[in-house]
């Protein structure tokens, strides 16, 4: 592949989204983190073989890790290595961002979950967020607002 083809492949495309997080949590603040990946994982991400639905971010020794995400290995790309689909992957954040996240999780009762993974140039980025859990009545209210806005759009389109 030449450089132009590679550039077209990685031009800001979304690899995976965590739609469950947007439904289950109030999103307070978002951060962009890099990911430390192996070669076979990058090839699988190009094919879109990632799942973030049950994943979350853990903090250990002043570092952030993505836990529970799945990257399904390609049979052609992982012939000489033993791929581990549920491997814990290190997230690359600045010291200040990590300290802010750790403080919010430990003291204020927030959780930290990934929202999406996407290409930024030739790099893989993970959008993580500080979130608070929604109660059942909050989920219903959000769904009701979404339905109402959809209905408004229909009315304005037909009128």
List unreliable stretches of 5+ residues.
Answer: none
**What Rg, in angstroms, do the CA atoms define?**
18 Å
Sheet with the most strands, sense and barrel status: 7 strands, antiparallel
Shape: globular
Give structural notes:
With 159 residues, the chain is α+β, with helices and mostly antiparallel strands. 36% of the residues lie in helices and 34% in strands. The protein has 5 helices and 9 strands, in the order H-E-H-E-H-E-E-E-E-E-H-E-E-H. The strands form 2 sheets. It has a 7-stranded antiparallel β-sheet with strand order 1-8-9-2-7-5-4. Strands 3-6 form a two-stranded antiparallel ribbon. The protein is globular. The mean pLDDT is 84.
């Amino acid at each position: 592949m030449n450089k132009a083809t590679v550039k077209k492949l990685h031009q800001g495309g979304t690899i995976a989204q965590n739609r469950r997080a947007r439904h289950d949590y109030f999103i307070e603040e978002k951060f962009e983190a890099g990911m430390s990946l192996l070669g076979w994982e990058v090839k699988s991400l190009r094919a879109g073989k990632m799942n973030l639905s049950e994943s979350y971010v853990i903090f250990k020794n002043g570092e952030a890790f993505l836990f529970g995400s799945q990257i399904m290995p390609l049979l052609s790309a992982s012939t000489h290595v033993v791929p581990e689909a549920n491997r814990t992957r290190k997230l690359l954040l600045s010291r200040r961002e990590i300290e802010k996240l750790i403080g919010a999780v430990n003291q204020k009762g927030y959780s930290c979950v990934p929202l999406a993974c996407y290409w930024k140039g030739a790099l893989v980025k993970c959008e993580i967020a500080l979130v608070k859990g929604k109660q059942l009545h909050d989920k219903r209210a959000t769904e009701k607002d979404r339905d109402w806005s959809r209905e408004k759009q229909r009315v304005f389109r037909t009128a």
